[in-house]
Amino acid sequence: MKKQTFLAILLVGALILTGVIFEPEMSFADDVAVTASVSTSVSCSTTATSTAFGTLTTGSIATASPNSTLLMSCNYGAGCDLNINDAGGGGNPGLWNSSASDIVQSADATLSAGTEGYGIQAATTANGSGGVLYPSVNYWVTGDNVGGLTLGTSVLASSSVPISGREITVIHKAAISGLTA
Known about the structure:
The chain has strands at about 5-10, 15-25, 40-45, 60-65, 70-75, 80-85, 95, 100-105, 110, 115-125, 130, 135, 145, 155-160, 165-175. The chain has one domain (about 40-175). It has no helices and 15 strands.
């Protein structure tokens, strides 16, 4: 049986128009299966290929410039990881000074002026779409806190669902002691 909808339109001046609207009956006898193959992809780029501290002094904590912004996309259903590692020097992770043959060690720490230390902070931005690219807990810090780098691979940030154009900003911080200077 066709569905009926009663329609009444009241116009100013007591003129009433009425009518019935019939909706057609629809039925579908066949199901259609649609399949597609989509290959997984991951892309990553950075706004800065280098960052510099300038001259480090014992009286302050230095922040390198410019910050590095990493842009990442992945269409894998379980998300993706953004990994980092440190080149270090002398077999240790850290900020290597080749002319002095010395390294400022890298570790999870709260930096303080006059005490040697080096690490990074990471923050997510609102840019992009899909899931969120969350920084790892040890890098998602602020102030004078830093996450240490390793010679091996560490997860800088990850998502648990596909992302497109998500950004992570990386800030490098260092402090030196009187023995380092």
